[in-house]
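Render this sequence as a predicted structure.
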Amino acid sequence: MKKADEIAKMIDHSVLHPVHTDTDLKKGCEIAARYRVASMCVKPYAVRQAVEYLENSGVPVASVIGFPHGNSSIEVKIYEAEEAIDDGAKEIDMVPNLGKVLQEDWKYVEAEIAAIVSVSRENNTLLKVIFENDYLPTDQYKIRLCELCTALGVDFVKTSTGFGFFKDKEGHMVTRGATVDDVRLMRKHSGEKVRVKASGGIRNLDQLLALKEAGAERIGTSATGAIMEEALSRFGK
């Protein structure tokens, strides 16, 4: 990869922080349109507005559902996905029920993901399933999720929401987000048709390139402007 526009086509520009306003949304859409990124990822209520801002830009809108902790019921997630698609979303990033994952209630997790796969397929919409790896204590959970997503025909498996905070040894709230090791693991245990999205804490071009080398085909970030300006400076358009 040598050109900045190729890097742009890996990026899902994200405006997902709880305190982001409509002003932040508009600025985010301007950034997404300027660099012609892969998608603009927004909160469910903002889908329609983002679609309007990005009209004729060639940049599709993605919506999160069950975000960030996956606690909504299956029925609510179905409704969220359907509403987002009706509002113009072309991609869905969903969080499964993390408690059910941790207690290894795979029947529930499979039913939940399958329900959103069905909605996505009916509407020709890409589906990404977010594992929230910061909360998964061993790789076996990630491997099982990769296997489930492969069997169900999910389009992308995704590392993190960027909001998976936990206490470190000093008692500070931190989040790891995307790591090279996790991306490699997810690539290894996912089927050939399933792509990997890395998200969480990606703030510069070198991080993006390392994650791409590990197997990521999409990158979720709010630091798109900084990454793209670095790419333009280093590689040219």
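Summary. The chain has one domain: 4-235. The longest strand covers residues 216-221.
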